[in-house]
Amino acid sequence: MKPADWINHKQKAEGPPPSNTMSFFHWALKGSFPVLFLSGIVSILTGFIEVSAVVLLGLVIDAALASSSNNPISSQILLLASGLLFFLVIRPIIFGAFSYTQTVIVSPNIFNLILSRLHRWTLGQSVTFFENDFAGRIAQKEMQTARAATDVVIEIIHTILLALASVVGAALMLTTVNITLSIILFSWLIGYIFLIRYFMPKIRKRSREKAGARALVTGQIVDTVTNIKTVKLFAHDKKEDDAAIDAMDNFRDFSIQYGVIAAWFRFCLNGLSGVLPIMLVGGSLYYWSVGNVSAGDIAAAGAISLRLSQMTGWVSFTLMTLYANLGEVEDGVKTLSTSYKLGDKDNAPDLLVSKGSIDFNNVSFTYGQNLAAVKNISLSIQAGEKIGLVGASGAGKSTLVSLLLRLYEPQKGTVLIDSININDITQASLRKQIAMVTQETALFNRSAHDNIMYGNPNATEKDLIRASRQAEAHEFIQDLEDHRGRKGYDAHLGEQGVKLSGGQRQRIALARAILKDSPVLVLDEATSALDSEVENSIQNALELVMEGKTVLAIAHRLSTLAKMDRIIVLSDGQIVEEGTHRKLLKINGLYRQYWDKQSGGFITTEQAAE
Question: Are 142 and 122 within 8 A, CB to CB?
Fold first, then answer.
C-alpha cells in the first residue's frame, strides 16, 4: 500500500456527528489516529532537529576558537564528520519526511475523510431539513467545516508539536549551559501563555460569528443565482442586490470585529517577542563575562532566542488561525450535527414488494401547528390498481404521496405497502420500489444519458433508448448540443435542466421513471407541461408502462384520469368522494363541479369516456 493510501478516506463514521467540538473531532478522524500519531512523531523529531542544529553550531564555534596551529580544527574529525552527516543527510531526510507526511499523507486524505462523513450524514437528513435552509448555505457549511477541521489537525501536528519540541529542546539545551537562562526562558513562556489564553477565546468567538455571516452571504447569493430566471421575470435585480449587500454588510461588520482583536493580538505579541532575544543574549553575555559560558554557548543562545522569537510569531499566527478554524468548525457543526428527524430503525430490513398494495390507515399529518394537510384518511389500493387523486390546491394530494414516500411521517396512523408498515423498513429500499414523475421536474447539470440512467444505473443502452422513445424524448435528445460541443445523449442539460423547455424536461423525467420500472408508479401532474399532441402520444405510452403496476396519479386536467380504475376526490385534507369517472359524474358532486368547469376544453374526451 502506498503511504498516500495509509488513511482510508472513504471509511464510514459510526453514528451522528457530535455537537461537542472534541467529540466531533474524534468522530471525524476515527480510523486515522495511528497515521496521525506517526505524523506527530515526525513533527517532534523535526523540532528537536532544529535545536540540534543550533547546538552543533555552538560546538563548531567553540572548536574553532580553541583551534591553533598546534591543534587545528581539522583535527576534530569526528565533530566535522558529524556536522556533515547531520546537515547533508539527517536534517534533509527528517525535513523531507515532515513535508511529505503533511502534503501527501495527511492533508488530502483528512479533508476527504471529514467531508465524506459530513456529506453522508447530511444526505440522510429529511426533506424538511433542506426545506428549512439555503441549499448554498448547507453546502458552504460542509466545505467550511471539513476545511477548517483539516487545518486544525494539520496545524496541531505540523506546527504546535514542532514548536513544543523546539521549545523543550531549547530549554534542555539552555539548562546544560546555564540554569538561569532556562529560568528566563520559562518566565518568558509563562507571559506568552497568558497572552495566548487572553486573546484566543476572543478570536475563536469572533471567527465563529464571522463564519456564520459568511455562510449567510453564500446562501443568499446561491439562492438568487439558482432562481435567476424568476429574478429576471419579475425585474427584481435591485431587490436581490439589496439583499446580498445587506448580508455582505453583516459579514463585513463581523470581519472588522475579528480584524480588531487580531490586530491587538499581533501588536502585543510582537512586543513580547522582542523581549526574548534581549533577555537570553544579554544574560548569556553577562555569564560569559564572568566566565560561566563559552562563546559557542553565546552563539547558540542567541540563535535559539532569535529562532524562538520568530517561531512565536509563526506559532501565534498559527494559533490564531487554529482558533479561528475551531470557531468555524463549531459554527458548521451547529448546523450539520442536527439529529435525523426521520431516520431508519436499527437493523431495519429492506422492502421487497411482491404485489404492490397500498394502505393508508387513519392517517393524519399537519404542517406546523395549524396547517392541517390530511385528516384521518383511510384508503386501500389493491395491487395493480390505478388511482387518480383530485382536489383543489392544498387539498392534501401531494401530502398523501409524500407520506407514501416517507418524506414525512404521519402524526397519526400508518402507511402500509403489501401489509408492511413503511416505518419499519429502510427509506432507500422503499423509494427504490416507487417511480415518480412530478410537475416540477428535477434534473442534474449532467448529460441527458446520466439523467435518464439515474432511474436505473444498471440498465443497458438499449433499455435507455427504449425508455426515451416511450417518453417521446429520443428525437429531441438527438438534436441537443451543449456549450462544449457535446451532442445527443452526451449533451449536458444545465442546472435543473434550464437548457430545455418545460415539456422536454418532463419527458426526460418520464424516461427516467420508465427506466426505473418500479412496481409502484406515482404521477404528479406528469404531463402538465406538454402540449396536447405530445401529451396524447405519451398518455398512450404511459398506459403500456402502467400495466401491472400500482399507480397513483395526481392531475388537475381531469381528462388524464378518466380511464383510471378509481378516482379519489380530496377536500380540506379528507376524502369526500371516490369511484370511477362515470360514477362520479353521475353523483353530481364536487368531481362533477370540477369537470364542468373545465369540460369546454375536454368535450371530446368526456364523450369518449362516457
Answer: yes
Kindly write down the DSSP assignment for every residue of 318-371, as one continuous string: HHHHHHHHHHHHHHHHHHHTPPPSS-PPTTPPPP--SS--EEEEEEEEEETTTE
In this structure, are residues 566 and 579 in contact, taking their beta carbons and an 8 Å threshold?
yes
CA distance 188 to 31: 39
CA 71 centroid distance within chain: 69
pLDDT for position 449:
92
- Say whether 138 sits in a helix, a strand or coil: helix
Q: Which of 119, 117, 127, 122 is nearest to 342 (CA)?
A: 127
CB 474 within 8 A of CB 468: yes
Identify the pLDDT of residue 165.
78
- Pairing label, strands 566-571, 386-390: parallel
Distance CA 564, CA 254 (A): 60
Task: Report in angstroms the alpha-carbon separations of 450 from 230, 454, 488.
Answer: 27, 6, 12
For 498-528, the pLDDT digits (tens) are 678 777 888 888 888 889 888 999 988 766 6
Q: How far apart are CA 364 and CA 433, in angstroms?
A: 23
Q: Are 570 and 417 in contact (CB under 8 A)?
A: no
Amino acid at 470: Q
Task: Identify the weakest region by mean pLDDT among 187-196, 385-394, 473-482, 574-583.
Answer: 187-196
Which three cell numbers mark 396?
392534501
Least confident among 65-79, 228-242, 299-313, 476-490: 65-79
CA 212/CA 552 separation, integer angstroms:
43
Query: Mean pLDDT of all residues in the chain?
Result: 81
Instruction: Compute the half-sphere exposure of residue 335: CA atoms within 13 Å on the CB side of its CA.
Output: 28
Helix, strand, or coil (residue 287)? helix
In the chain the first and final C-alpha atoms are separated, in Å, by: 73
User: Is the Cβ–Cβ distance between 581 and 609 less than 8 Å?
Assistant: yes
* DSSP summary character for residue 7: S
Average pLDDT over residues 338-363: 87
Burial of 325 (0-12, 13-18, 19+ CB in 10 A): buried
Which secondary-structure segment (H or E) carries 379? strand 371-381
Question: CA 582 → CA 380, 563, 595, distances in Å?
Answer: 20, 10, 11
Residue predicted with more confidence, 81 or 378 = 378
What radius of gyration, in Å, describes the C-alpha atoms of the chain? 35
Asked if residues 523 and 552 have their Cβ atoms less than 8 Å apart, the reply is yes
Mean pLDDT of 272-289: 73
User: What's the pLDDT score for residue 176?
Assistant: 66
Residue 453, pLDDT score: 92
- Number of other residues whose CB lies within 10 A of the CB of residue 496: 17
Place of cell 428549512: 132
Q: Which three cell numbers stand for residue 111?
A: 479533508
Collapsed DSSP state (helix, strand, coil) of residue 591: helix
DSSP structural state of residue 418: T
Q: What is the dihedral of CA 214, 215, 220, 221, to 10 degrees?
A: 70
Contacts of 207 (CB under 8 A, 6+ apart): 258, 323, 324, 325, 326, 327, 328
pTM of the predicted model over 0.70: no
